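Let's do one together. I've listed all components of the complex below, 1476 residues spread over two lines.
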Amino acid sequence: MANIAKKVSWSGRGDDRGERTPLLNGDEEVKYNRQVPDTLDYDNSENQLFLEEERRMSHMGFRCLEIRRWVICGLIGFLTGLIACMIDIAVEKLAGYKYFAVKLNIEKYTELGGLSISLILWAVLNSAFVMFGAIAVAFVEPIAAGSGIPQIKCFLNGVKIPRVVRLKTLVIKVFGVICSVAGGLAVGKEGPMIHSGAVVAAGVSQGRSTSLKKDFKIFEYFRRDTEKRDFVSAGAAAGVSAAFGAPVGGVLFSLEEGASFWNQMLTWRIFFASMVSTFTLNFFLSIYHGKPGELSSPGLINFGRFDSDIVQYNLYEIPLFIIMGALGGVLGALFNIINYWLTIFRIRYIHRPCLQVMEAMLVAAVTATVSFAMIYFSNDCQPLGQDNTEEYPLQLFCADGEYNSMATAFFNTPERSVRSLFHNPPGTYNPVTLGVFTLAYFFLAVWTYGLTVSAGVFIPSLLIGAAWGRLFGILLCIVLLTCAAAQLGGIVRMTLSLTVILVEATGNVTYGFPIMLVLMTAKIVGDYFIEGLYDIHIKLQSVPFLHWDAPPTSHWLTAREVMSSPVTCLNRVEKVGRIVDVLSNTSTIHNGFPVVAHTSENDEPGIICGLILRSQLIVLLKHKVFVERASSRLSQRKLQLKDFRDAYPRFPPIQSIHVSQDERECMMDLTEFMNPTPYTVPQETSLPRVFKLFRALGLRHLVVVDNENRVVGLVTRKDLARYHVGKDGLEELHLAQT
Amino acid sequence: MANIAKKVSWSGRGDDRGERTPLLNGDEEVKYNRQVPDTLDYDNSENQLFLEEERRMSHMGFRCLEIRRWVICGLIGFLTGLIACMIDIAVEKLAGYKYFAVKLNIEKYTELGGLSISLILWAVLNSAFVMFGAIAVAFVEPIAAGSGIPQIKCFLNGVKIPRVVRLKTLVIKVFGVICSVAGGLAVGKEGPMIHSGAVVAAGVSQGRSTSLKKDFKIFEYFRRDTEKRDFVSAGAAAGVSAAFGAPVGGVLFSLEEGASFWNQMLTWRIFFASMVSTFTLNFFLSIYHGKPGELSSPGLINFGRFDSDIVQYNLYEIPLFIIMGALGGVLGALFNIINYWLTIFRIRYIHRPCLQVMEAMLVAAVTATVSFAMIYFSNDCQPLGQDNTEEYPLQLFCADGEYNSMATAFFNTPERSVRSLFHNPPGTYNPVTLGVFTLAYFFLAVWTYGLTVSAGVFIPSLLIGAAWGRLFGILLCIVLLTCAAAQLGGIVRMTLSLTVILVEATGNVTYGFPIMLVLMTAKIVGDYFIEGLYDIHIKLQSVPFLHWDAPPTSHWLTAREVMSSPVTCLNRVEKVGRIVDVLSNTSTIHNGFPVVAHTSENDEPGIICGLILRSQLIVLLKHKVFVERASSRLSQRKLQLKDFRDAYPRFPPIQSIHVSQDERECMMDLTEFMNPTPYTVPQETSLPRVFKLFRALGLRHLVVVDNENRVVGLVTRKDLARYHVGKDGLEELHLAQT
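Okay, and this is what the predicted structure of the assembly comes out as:
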């Protein structure tokens, strides 16, 4: 019964592959009763080992570390750019072969009159591509599904989604996104780039791959959550940068989603990674296109050239922008609501990998059919010019020397379709056909997001926006762009970063004001109905995601009410047996344990003197760092920080560590390994104050103490995440207990 | 002896105007022994009054507050844009009259042969303008001198520079900057806009002006440091946005300098203020230029149109960018070093307002002379075309129908000169003249920055960069732009925000990569020699400015070593006499006092139970919130949060409050007013950890406690600011004791 949703969309199939039973209950909403994902520790454990290492390090040593950080960021940017380039070329080649084959077939059957055969060919080709992608995702690495943006948001927020930054995930993601875009689904290849960049960053910065069992013995210093997060921020930024040619937008994305603490050097490094990434992509694409050194395509997406003379907007156009923003907000909310119900349906009924693959193939076939119908029923012909830029002009029923103009938009990858919608001359599309298309594509896109394929939602959103923009008779490409922005903003609800991303993607700063205006309106209007798409999916996983601030009306809640209590505390010198028992206790899986000076017999709480993590205890147990009872000689093996770093991040479970009965009687001295100065708050601290501390410092555990510094409780991320503002004021969510 | 530097450049003339004796001592460096400016409290004091108010507030109430915040940000943007517009028009008009008069005079005397009279006229006009500006700054409000960027950096960092955000400062600043730009100094009007925006924000958000003694009784909720800082961030961003037409750059500037904690809604509001500001400026300028609604000049600065076809850069140009960046770094460092010595000279010898005004007038006259010489010795004539865009073509010794091309660059405001340097055709300038000019202008600009006039350093830096770029035979305007960027970056060392500002000012995203490259190189090279200009000036004031991180090698320092001790603690119920004595003690001016459960007689520290601020105590004393000793009836007047807000931010000094001998025997109950949950750390906490807490939460006081929660010390901002990395590792600065 447990773990349904988690398995289906994110972490997928662990050891319990066969147990995927549908979760049926009578409630209105699906209740998720499952393990909460682990959390990350962005507050450094400053134990004695760490402090000693830092003290030994010279000023020069810190400078070398800094240089190494820059090198890593450069590498992250380079590899992310390379991956983006690979995806782009692969998609172009595969889609090219596909459209070439279908075009030949159509040309053949236009004369003969058996166009349904062409349709079937198209649909089968699409389904085949999608099948490969879906099989890889569903059977090999389910976490590679979707755009990966919600997962990266969670990671940067401090929630550890299992396997989200592994090499295998990256491979499946890249393969999956190539298949789904080549398979003609209503998806983009931009969102997955963000996830890819993050995986690259997590891999490169650790200097090893646990999947490949290869340790390069470099960058060992960076094997901890704090450093890793910084690099993952850079990777995500590099991904955005490669996807949209938007280095500044990438930095802002990372900051908006992840970095709660802004640091100038870090930001500058992230920017460097972004710049290198877009530069690498640009450079290799220029070689591929046979014009080496001509750096003209900074991102995967290309909106085409906007003539800068018609960019100028006038004062009276501002209400128009606001109206479009509102419309985008409403349509985006509609998109999100339908997708929400669909996702719940999927969680309940479509959780077997086979079913998931079949659904994806069905969507692929339907998408081909809709596109085919669009082209078939359009009878708008344009003359074939010499400077024809169309790659696959379809003649169909047009006279010789002419081609079907509708095909320029829909016999193409979604990105090229967006460009056609922006730039095609007035009168290209029949309003009725366009209306039908907008509607059909809207529902196709809703249906597609959440399929078990790697795919992004940016491009389809832009396409829908541009389509309804054109439907309303808007032909100026700057205004069409704002329509597209409105639709995208209504769905994802990103703010500053999205503005900058779109401005950078178009290459013209003048669009800033209208884009900001529509995005702001879309967000305000959309938020009235439902949250953004990513937030919905994060919420459906019920992970302990921390928002920016505590709910405004939560001042009356104090740490006393919020904290978990009683807390399992350990003594400074603790019996091995007790530690093993505490760690093995499956009913209460704690990850951090306050260390107290002494726990007295009469259950009185002890005075706090440190905090130790489960992962640290496991390493200690594994290395058998025991002091024999009643033995004065120092039998304790000297453990080094290196031992902890080697075990990071995949610490073995407690069950895998064998502790003999004799050893259980030994003692363990935690003094050297615990964090001697954990952050503490008194019991009367208000929730917003606790929240601010958590968010600003990236905490995982916060010890609540009484007046005499005795441990009375422990606040963890999930204690804070369960409060949110609902319709009737403050509500408490039912997050699963770990 | 005390207060020299502070008086001279920043806070100026208090009551002790006559005491400005030069500070002469035998040390290599000037030592500043003076009062440290007050600090701001960005950690909210969550006392009972505050919590009660928050609890009373409904969800709707919070929403109204949020809407009010948006309205204020809109107002800030609007007013900042309006001020920018006013400055622009005033400068254009005044400079126009001046150049017109000089041109007529030159034309007259070119024939007659008495051009020295023209030179004298020009120099006198310049000096006159500058005199008015300098008198206003030197005698009325010295803090309005310079660009104001270091002061705003300090404010956002948490250092309270006196009178920095007052209305009077704004008026003098605006008047001063008009005078200095119209007076032909080597200054820009962009930097002061940032200060102006910040003052507007601080004024509008408080809903009153203490200078004008006008209280609009609105926005009372925002009368505290936390809220005010957020608005000042928005104001600074709006200022950048108006100055450079760079709304995103403005947001990044504010974040880079100020906001240690990134909040999505706050960022979005700041962006809104920026957008409104550039839009307002644009709109009013379009009306002024007679083309209402044509929004084509987003900022004060205008680099002219860059043809987008020649924007493309090639791979082999990258080493060129790096070389230029390095050169910019070296020249920028040279600029900073000379300016540093000059500033020290000024602090020692030029501290009387009269001298300051005279120096400013001298510089104005010299600037005019240099420009005149440039034009006089150039004999490069260009034909007057029909599409002539020059406003004041000087014929001088050219044939009829021709004009002196050197005058297009130097018979003009610095901004127009930058544009001429970027866009004038090859061969316009004689290399020797250009070389002499570059050198002369470099030293003029160094000399000018730090004068007692309101003036920015952005434009002169860009001008110097463009000049040496042209000198090296670079003619492509994109490359010239990067030269200019390199010089500017070498001087101010801003990173991401400057990149974005310059990209937005040119209007073309493609410049991003080269600009980033040169700025990064310039920063790395420049930092090797000396800090950035703003940091130098901040350091010369020895204010407790907190950088991003603790010095890297400071892990061996603990809170125990860093903290101030012993601490003056107050009891929960304290005798009025003692409070008055503590506050009146001039030898140790503390601003925050831990409140303890009981201070025992034998000097044993008490258990912490709260923290109360000097300002709160003063309000309590002023309202005589006393409990009569041995009296059970509640004579304590019910004080409200409103009383504290009314007193904010100019709390009266303790000397102004009269407490009678009888009242001294009364008691004061602090329970309701103290912050009951101040942040505390144990004594063993390392400096980086304390630093992170301070920086992330914007703290002013951090209580250090022992194992039993007894107060043993207090860490304040200056305890942290005094450690920095010098040549031989960690050094301790001698900051004055407050």
